[in-house]
Amino acid sequence: MSELIKNNKDKQNQLKSIIMEIHAGKNPKEVKKKFDKLIRNVSPEEIAEMEQGLIQEGVPVEQVQSLCDVHVSVFKSALEDAHRGKVLPGHPVHSYREENKAAKKYARILVRESRNADRSGSSFSSAMEDMEALEIHFRRKENQLFPYLEAVNFTGPSKVMWGKHDEIREAFKDVRKAHSAGHNRDLRRKVKALTGAIRRMIFMEERILFPTALRKLPEKSWVEIRRGEAEIGYAWISPGNLWDANVVQSESPTAINAAPVKTSPDSRIPLETGELLPSQLNMMLKALPFDLTFVDSEDKVRYYSQGKERLFPRSPGIIGRDVANCHPPKSVHIVEKIVQSFRNKEMDVAEFWFTMNDRFIHIRYFPVYSELGLYKGTIEVSQDVTDIRALKGVKKLLDWE
Predict the structure, then answer these.
(1) Report field, pTM of the whole predicted structure over 0.85
(2) I want to staple 59 with a disulfide (CB 3.0 to 4.6 A). Which of 13, 54, 135, 323 is the partner?
(3) Contact yes or no for 87/217 (Cβ under 8 A)
(4) What is the domain extent for residue 197?
(5) End-to-end alpha-carbon separation of the chain, Å?
């Protein structure tokens, strides 16, 4: 083992010791004093690798997630001095940072409006709607950035960050409940907790996640990330295009806004009861009145339909992604249970239903087997069945008037 590798390993072990000692109840000030020199020289990437290391050693993601605020506070001064990496407008990281600036602004407005939520003419509900656009920021990270970090075997920080997203989502629900109940004192407390969590998440992004991602991912990955962002959209901002132009000039074969090159063979695909052109099959799948996703026997996402109105966000970044990484850490065990039951032929369907934005959503999972009975994958079907559930009586004639 070279001296450099040995030193890096020793440093990682010491970083883990810092966090675990504080988690065990040690006084943070004493621990910081003990590791003062190490703390002053720590980099964002080393902290991210420390998170990754803890998870790989068997520490549950939820526990690392709970330690997040601790290690951010301990390393805060070092992280504030760390180089964040400059990027041009249009680069995905630049767009994330612009959204963070907007998020801070809307968080301040939300806090201000929470003090007047009980007054007539209050703008609190409007301020909440503005703040909740943060969900788009989350979805772009989960569906576009995280898959590429996973592709370079850097999964820990993504899982931890997804957990933070879910904490903030729950905080949004708490604020809504307090507002609906008219508990104004509790509302102000909930808003303070929500905006505090958002600010801490932004700090983690700006000082740990993004600098590390810029070092880990090659330019080609950022181009692919940028290409898929439009399917999800942006929170509050419009992305610039200086980086786009720079990439097109330096790598002329790659155009940011151009779709990936696809072949269009004229040969038909033979099916059990007919044959179709690839273009016909694609159009049929897009025309279906529900969302369809296929996960193969190796648990990799291989296809999702692009209908007119998707119920849940999807973008090209999830193709080839492990299905377990497509879900929040807290629900991964459910996904794994469904897939395993299909592999073992214990169940032939799994289904869930719930209300989302006043619409009734029905989700079903079906196993796919070969003619020999071998497990070949799982189909997920998500459908808005609100109007179907409301049907009554009988209709046998066409009536469009």
Answers:
(1) no
(2) 54
(3) no
(4) 92-250
(5) 79
